[in-house]
Amino acid sequence: MSYAGKQLPNIRFQTRALNSETNEYDWVEIETADYFLGKRTVVFSLPGAFTPTCSNTQVPGYDVLYDDILAAGIDEVYCMSVNDAFVMNAWAKDLNVQNVKMIPDGTGAFTRDMEMLVIKDNLGFGKRSWRYAMVVDNGVIEKIFIEPGKSDDCLTDPYGETSPERVLEYLTTD
Q1: For residue 124, what are the contacts with CB-CB under 8 A and spacing of at least 6?
Q2: Is 4 part of any domain?
């Protein structure tokens, strides 16, 4: 499948947002357009919250390089995973994420429509996202980075193509 020039799937994400009046978290539906229209963004998707590569390397790396990525012409950096809003918020808090915004794809609908949903039953995960990153301009994919070997029940967890360093290299190379 060719991704460059493709419009992102139109999905309603179920998220949790802090209500400033009640100081409680409320359910909020946020559509794809709310995240991506009128902006140039980087979004990276990964197999799961609290997993080793995602927690130890990928999310912290994007958080550290956040300002450099924004300086390269990006408006926002998002992390997406096939996890619910409770898990994504707890994970961000656990990692002390300061900059990257989390998008919970709890049902996997966005990931499925991106053709990146894989089965990871061999790890007891069920359906999850294959690891990918992309630059999105106004809701349209400009560039996508996909880890090699995409398959169900993959025995490895490739990481490199979707690193923040690789994406930043793309953004800063003429």
Answers
A1: none
A2: no
Task: Look at residue 85 and tell me if it is in a domain.
Answer: yes
Model confidence pLDDT, tens digit, residues 125-143: 999 999 999 999 999 999 9
- Decide if 54 is catalytic: yes
In a domain, 96, yes or no: yes
Q: Are the beta carbons of 66 and 171 closer than 8 angstroms?
A: no
Whether the model clears a pTM of 0.90, i.e. scores above it, the answer is yes
**Active-site hit among 8, 11, 42, 54:** 54
Structure tokens at 128: 């999850």
Token couple for 149: 């070997």
How many domains are there within the chain? 1
Q: Which of 42, 37, 46 is nearest to 68 (CA)?
A: 42
